[in-house]
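[Q] Does anyone have a clean structure-token version of this?
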Amino acid sequence: MTTDSPTKGAEEQHILQRLATLREADLPVRGGRTMAYVYDSGLDGLQELASAAQAAFDGVNGLDMTVFPSVVTLENEVVGRAAALLGGGPETTGTFTSGGTESCLLAVLTAREYARRTRGVGAPELVLPVTAHPAFHKAAAYFGLRVVTVPVEPESFRVRAADVATAITDDTALVVVSAPSYAHGVVDPIAEVAAETARRGVLCHVDACIGGWYLGHLRLVAEGGHLPAFDLSVPGVTSLSVDLHKYGYTPKGASVLLMRDAELRRHGWFAHAGWPGYPVVGSTLQGTKSAAPLAAAWAVTERLGTGGYVELSRRVHRAVSELIEGIGRIEGIRVLGRPDASLIAVAADGPLTDPFVVADEMRARGWYLQPQLAFGVSPANLHLTVTAAVAGSETVTDLLAELEVAVARAREAGPTAVDPALAELAAALDPDALGADEVAAALAIAGIGEDGALPGRMAPVLAVMQVMPPRLVERLLPEVIGRLYACPPADGPTGAGGSMSGKAPVRQGR
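[A] Here you go.
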């Protein structure tokens, strides 16, 4: 029998301390103050249950279900729960994926192959409202589809079914609608759009990644009586994506793609036997994949059940209503549209308020509200993802009080000014022709140094991005991220004896 040496214990403690030091630069993932990217139920013990479930399946590889049949059982039960909630019938089938982006990618890939094999479409098109998530543009870029974008109405931010119908052609492989759209939290007219796609023999996907689990449970109670139909029960809807690591409150890496039947789903599967190794078959973009997120998702959804999720949805619904009412009383800001779900977009109500300055002021007070650039009919705004952890009356009250102070300070400071000559210069640049020197100069103008470090206040950077054409922003963003993700120096933190300084490449705010 062997025991750990004191030296080994010290080394492990050193490693864990470095991780803890690095986390100090991050925003909190619990407590409801980080209102993007993270989802907190606010329930005691749920994180511990999920961690234990993940640990139990940490070494299980979902690549081969014949070796690990537990994966089949867990996936069938998780997918079955999603199908039962979201309008699935006896023929409905689905796949557990690593997240909303993978679910969306697979929906597009399946539609492309279906259009090719059943309709002979050689140059497939993807019809998207301008509010559709970028994951669909990513899918089109990866899988070679042409994107056809459709505008939304300026006040409701919803797409019109008639405009979608006009955009559909013989080459359309898939039409996408959102429940809700991320930017404004509104549900597209899914029944009307799906009726048009069915009439034209085209597949229709509902992106319910962020809202499906929440809306599906909310509509089971009186508070959800206002919700429009949005799921697989709607005639013409052929697939739907829903994330569990959002309002299912499971750890990251958990989403479900539902299909109307197995015949449609098979067009998205990959199989290969033409090599000397083992036969390969897979329903996702991954090969080797950890079963830990699946086990955690199963454990959390089993623990909460329908009753638990209904109560969490009620809490979120009440918090959203209180926030919308409270924001309406704050001079200088307004809510965009009429949110159907748990997402709120807050814009300036007049020229004196710069929402990006408001974001900086809130960040300095320990809150993260996500800045969104103006695009089309949508003005610059701040995005609030409301989770159950925000639902306590004290948290809502604190948020509204801090927001009122932040808006007042932003109005006092005034909007961030950008030299008009800079906007003219940006409009004249060809993003595809920029060399290294031009990229460096453009980033310097935006306040980003050679090391990619971002300034403490982001309003000036966002203001510059706002006057740049989207294609130029798309050209520059990978350069910024590329500078952040650089290999550490040879004497850097490569092991227990490495540097333990804990310096992070980026520290925003505070």
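[Q] Thanks! Anything notable?
[A] Confidence is low (pLDDT under 50) at residues 496-510.
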